[in-house]
């Protein structure tokens, strides 16, 4: 007998609610599908019956951003990852973005999902990964925990890919603040990392809030200015003063900022990607801030998205 699968294209849906905040998590990619405060979108949403647009809201592990040419060496062995960004010939955003994550536990304001990184060509390491989404009065906190149950050390990095929404209009209409003093320059065509430069006197300097306008950004920032609570906040605000922010701690010494420029004007610059990262692009090759998970070790990192 034929049966029909009624599961939405984006996976099983988990709705969270606390106070003025509501969120929906889709199981494919353990993705933040929407986050709202008093019915105002804080991230660019998508429909449950839609295949997730690119990596919008997805968990990025065991690496964020790009591994150039998909090639790297680790502990003396050379590896070739599948080229999942074929137009630039890179391996992008890890191995769990299109996995259907499993429910570990759920409450009205939280959900915990789990997935395994299976040893495979290019990444011959097993990891057990959990993500906890939790709403409270202060917004949505995301915590990613990875454990290495295998016999050998594994290279690792993590992030997520929310697109923040300040209010009406496009990215051009919003004010951005990024408390970071350095930016990683990349090649124009393939976004391959080059040198780290000071943001001062450049169009990448958003240490003081200013209008984004037509500025294009798809770059990783570091030299983060953490406050006296050891946290930093990237924020976007609309002209009415309302907005959205993402706050993270020293576990993320990098943040990728992208103005989400697309060839199709109908979907271009709808939100600002703000991705706190444990390491920069191509860390599997540079080794910069790369986490090495030893056998039996685990690592946790998190951030909070909240209304302004």
Write a brief caption for the model.
The protein has one helix spanning 283-286, and strands at residues 13-18, 21-26, 31-37, 40-41, 59-60, 66-68, 71-74, 77-80, 90-92, 102-107, 110-117, 127-136, 139-147, 154-156, 159-160, 163-164, 175-177, 180-186, 193-198, 210-211, 218-224, 231-237, 243-249, 254-258, 272-277, 291-293, 298-307. It is mostly beta strands. A hairpin with a 2-residue loop joins strand 1 (13-18) and strand 2 (21-26).
In terms of structural class, how would the helical and strand content be classed?
Answer: mainly beta
Helix and strand pattern: EEEEEEEEEEEEEEEEEEEEEEEEEHEE
Instruction: Estimate the mean pLDDT confidence.
Output: 97
Q: How many beta-strand runs? A: 27
Count up the helices: 1
Ranges where pLDDT stays below 50 over 5 or more residues in a row are none
Give the amount of beta strand, in percent: over 45%
Separation, N- and C-terminal Cα atoms: 52 Å
Shape: globular
Largest sheet: 9 strands, antiparallel
Rg, rounded, reads 19 Å
Give the helix proportion (percent range). Answer: under 10%
The main sheet orders its strands as: 10-11-12-13-27-23-22-17-20
